[in-house]
Design a protein that fits this description.
alpha/beta; 98 residues; 4 helices; 3 strands
Length: 98
C-alpha cells in the first residue's frame, strides 16, 4: 500500500486520442479528476494527445521505455461502424513487457 506522500508524488502519463473527441474528453476529464481525488498532484499528470486509437499503443510503449512514469494510462474510444479499428484489438498493442 502506498503512503499519501508516495501517491502525491506519482508521475502519471495519460495518452489519449483526438478521434471521437466528445467521448474521449469526457473519459479523460473523469480520469484526471479521479487521479486528483485519489491524491495525485495535478502537476505530476502529463497528458499527450495522439490522432487516433491506433497511435495510443505506440506512444504508451515509447513512454514506458523512458521509465519516467510510474503509471501510464491509455484513453480512447473506438465506436463500431466509424472505422475498421473496432475489429482490431488495440489494447493488445499497449501491453509492455518488462
Amino acid at each position: 500500500m502506498l503512503s499519501k506522500k508516495d501517491i502525491k508524488s506519482l508521475n502519471v502519463g495519460i495518452v489519449y486520442s483526438r478521434f471521437n473527441e466528445p467521448v474521449v474528453k469526457e473519459l479523460l476529464n473523469s480520469c484526471v479528476d479521479q487521479l486528483i481525488l485519489e491524491g495525485i498532484d495535478e502537476n505530476h499528470i502529463l497528458k499527450k494527445e495522439v490522432p487516433g486509437a491506433l497511435e495510443i499503443p505506440m506512444m504508451i510503449n515509447a513512454y514506458a521505455t523512458k521509465k519516467k512514469f510510474d503509471v501510464l494510462i491509455a484513453v480512447g474510444a473506438v465506436i463500431r461502424g466509424e472505422t475498421y479499428h473496432f475489429e482490431n484489438n488495440i489494447a493488445k498493442g499497449a501491453i509492455h513487457k518488462k
